[in-house]
């Protein structure tokens, strides 16, 4: 399959940006999916801890991107379970 892609790129050099952007998009989507599966508190891989979100404190940052939020200064405003 890689040989066919390289053959098409040699015949039609204008397709090279298309292949680059498709590869970049597929790689980014795969990496984001892996990040969600491994670091999201809603996903539980351990059967010994069925509710991992209860162990998260207010200082734990699990959002991908947050603007102007200092997680070290947040107060705990929820009950302990």
TrEMBL record:
Any GO CC annotation of this UniProt entry: respiratory chain complex IV
Location relative to the cell: Mitochondrion inner membrane
Transmembrane segments: 12-34
Keywords, ordered alphabetically: Electron transport, Membrane, Mitochondrion, Mitochondrion inner membrane, Respiratory chain, Transmembrane, Transmembrane helix, Transport
GO molecular function: protein-containing complex binding
Superkingdom of origin organism: Eukaryota
Broad class of where this protein is predominantly found: mitochondrion
Topology within the bilayer: Single-pass membrane protein
PANTHER family listed in its UniProt record: CYTOCHROME C OXIDASE SUBUNIT NDUFA4 (PTHR14256:SF4), NADH-UBIQUINONE OXIDOREDUCTASE MLRQ SUBUNIT (PTHR14256)
Assigned protein family: Belongs to the complex IV NDUFA4 subunit family.
Protein name as it appears in the record: Cytochrome c oxidase subunit NDUFA4
Lineage: Eukaryota, Metazoa, Chordata, Craniata, Vertebrata
Gene encoding the protein: NDUFA4
